[in-house]
UniProtKB/TrEMBL annotation:
It comes from Drosophila arizonae. This is Enoyl-CoA delta isomerase 1, mitochondrial-like. Pfam families: ECH_1. It comes from the Eukaryota. InterPro entries: ClpP/crotonase-like_dom_sf, Enoyl-CoA_hydra/iso.
Length: 281
């Protein structure tokens, strides 16, 4: 039976949170009317693998939140073990070429929207965040992770060359030599290691506490002029955004060329089979 305590807590929560009108299917957007902070929840079971549709919905959600002048954006996952498994490998293995083009373009759009977002952004990393999952988290300004998670940019272990925006994200949060070594080794870090090197800012014992810490980070800007804040952020990130724009077409073509290569297809097939075999054994 529900206690009166939990019922009143639910009623309180219901009165301050509203779902955004155009919330889409694979991302749920909830705005807290008291704080003005919007939470975007990745909701593509089982592991939030980033396919064309999830990337599309995520892009729409970020833009909608930015246009609605929320006070900040928190990114999290509906899965209690996985924040995001990164790009959906099925979109790259024996791909439909038009769809692969769309996948990469949408990944670029999401990076641009999140990395260049005018609002304060934070990630409540409530599960593993390999590859594209880590990319999303490190596009934000602040990260809180849960215990026993794994996070990192392991693209190189799949034979994929990390795109330039992976480099920008790592250079933005890690010392240069740590960033370079992590990328060339395709390192996946434990929660403790991620905290120690500064890949994440804090650790929380539950998703709720992680969300709370993210809200507290965003609240530190309550007295700051929002325009001055966003222009300062863009001054820091502007050179990366400009370089990205000048290389985005080349990066798209190299990605398509890369995944078209027979050896690459063989490697991706083996990797995917390895992931599936793990569950059969
Ligand atoms: C050209 C440069 C590109 C750079 C940009 C980004 C690239 C990428 O993101 S590449 C993707 C790299 N991702 C990974 O290497 C992650 C692989 N997955 C895992 O490590 C784990 O699945 C996990 C830690 C994310 C979750 O572990 P667990 O909770 O134990 O879940 P399972 O491993 O049992 O997975 C469930 C189910 O999902 C399939 N799967 C996992 N990851 C992916 C994926 N990225 N794409 C597609 N499918 C994936 C896995 O095979 C299982 O399938 P079934 O056995 O059929 O249930």
């Amino acid at each position: 039976m529900m206690s009166s305590m939990s019922l009143s807590r639910m009623l309180r929560a219901a009165s301050v949170c509203r779902t955004m009108s155009t919330a889409t299917k694979l991302t749920a957007v909830e705005v807290n009317d008291k704080t003005g902070i919007a939470t975007v929840t990745l909701s593509r079971p089982p592991i939030n693998a980033l396919n064309v549709e999830l990337l599309h919905d995520l892009y729409q959600s970020i833009k909608e939140i930015e246009n609605n002048k929320s006070r900040g954006l928190i990114l999290t996952s509906s899965n209690d073990k996985v924040f995001s498994a990164g790009l959906d490998i099925n979109e790259m293995y024996r791909p439909d070429k038009d769809r692969a083009r769309l996948l990469w373009t949408k990944l670029q759009d999401v990076w641009l929207a999140l990395y260049g977002c005018a609002l304060p952004t934070a990630a409540a990393i409530n599960g593993h965040a390999p590859a594209g999952g880590c990319l999303l988290a490190t596009s934000c300004e602040y990260r809180v992770i849960l215990p026993q998670c794994r996070i990192g940019l392991n693209e190189i272990q799949l034979g994929l060359v990390p795109p330039i925006f992976c480099m920008f994200n790592f250079l933005n949060v890690l010392p240069r030599r740590v960033a370079e070594r992590a990328l060339v080794q395709g390192r996946i870090f434990t929660t403790e290691q991620a905290l120690q090197i500064g890949l994440v800012d804090d650790v929380a014992s539950s998703k709720e506490k992680a969300l709370e810490k993210c809200s507290q980070f965003i609240a530190t800007f309550a007295q700051t002029n929002p325009l001055a804040r966003s222009l300062t952020k863009l001054k820091f990130r502007g050179a990366d955004l400009q370089r990205f724009e000048s290389e985005r077409t080349n990066e798209l073509e190299s990605f398509l060329e890369f995944i078209d290569h027979p050896q690459m297809q063989e490697d991706l097939g083996i990797y995917l089979e390895g992931l599936k075999k793990k569950n059969r054994n």
